[in-house]
Amino acid sequence: MAKIAQVSVLKLAFFVTLSSFVSLSLAQKTLSRHCLENPPTPNSTYGAGLVKDIGGLKAYVSGHTRSRLAILLVSDVYGYQAPHLRYVHFSTPNHREEHAPNPSTLITLLDYVIYCDKFSVVVVDIADKVARAGFYAVVPDFFFGDPYVVNSSRTIPEWLKIHGTDKGFEDAKTVIAALRKEGMHAVGAAGFCWGGKVIVQIANTDFTKATVLLHPSWVTLDDIKAVKVPMSILAAELDNGTPPELLKQFEEALTANKVNNFIKIFPKVKHGWTVRYNETDIPTVKAANEAHKDLLDWLSKYLRKY
Ligand SMILES: *[C@@H]1O[C@H](CO)[C@@H](O)[C@H](O)[C@H]1NC(C)=O
Ligand SMILES: *[C@@H]1O[C@H](CO)[C@@H](O)[C@H](O)[C@H]1NC(C)=O
Ligand SMILES: *[C@@H]1O[C@H](CO)[C@@H](O)[C@H](O)[C@H]1NC(C)=O
């Protein structure tokens, strides 16, 4: 095994100034042109966790129920078997595989690290990262075994007719209710792309304590005006569906409604990058890690009170 050094993530200047953009009307109906890029290969056995039934949905779960704090992760159209949404991934420019460092030494919230040496960057992917931070991570199969498959005979609009975000919203409430019944004191929720639209609806209920949208799709200003719980939006600079000028409006609306918010635009990355980053593109991998840390920091801030 290669020697793995521990290097603190540089606080890169990820914040892009939001200003002076002319408003785009109804750009929010657009699906990002990057939405279907770099599709994952679904893998049913990937990850440190296991798949169980929660409220009638299959869900990948990771971490301990005894933490009493759950984080619901709502996938993009590629569903809950996407490896980057689940487990440790080792990104190396030369595709070298390593074993995971001992989980107990890996991630703490206060001292977030990526493990890297000259040749490799190790990324612990989202659900297991959440679990290692002490939460019970839950990634449900909102598509009931039927995620979108690129280049299949079905187009995205056809697929969306069956797998609409409104249905996802209803199912997400069912899952959260089941988690509460299992003894969870509080639930935070984050959604990616398709899942972002689900989460923005959850955010105007009292089902969760805090929410995160990651490069969300189809979210409108009206959706945002209805949000009641703290919300972070982690967005890509390159996203024609949810562009920076729309995010500025989101931020103003949340602030005007006195909803705690944290909006961040990651420069030079494309919509989808937090789950569908190019594994050999190290700056993008680092930006994905930064977003995962922001997700955890935001939800922890609100969940740790319970
Ligand atoms: C799925 O993940 C397992 C590890 O859990 C791995 O051994 C297997 O090769 C993966 N399958 C595919 C198709 O990537
Ligand atoms: C889907 O088809 C397009 C056009 O034929 C091609 O460029 C792309 O690589 C294909 N994607 C996958 C994942 O097969
Ligand atoms: C991934 O990133 C590498 C390095 O930046 C680049 O050479 C490669 O073309 C990228 N692959 C895709 C599929 O974009």
Automatic annotation (TrEMBL):
Coiled coil: none annotated. Residues 1-27 form the signal peptide. InterPro entries: AB_hydrolase_fold (IPR029058), Dienelactn_hydro (IPR002925). Residues 124-302 form the Dienelactone hydrolase domain. One of its GO terms (molecular function) is hydrolase activity. Keywords: Signal. This is Dienelactone hydrolase domain-containing protein. It comes from Quercus lobata (Valley oak).
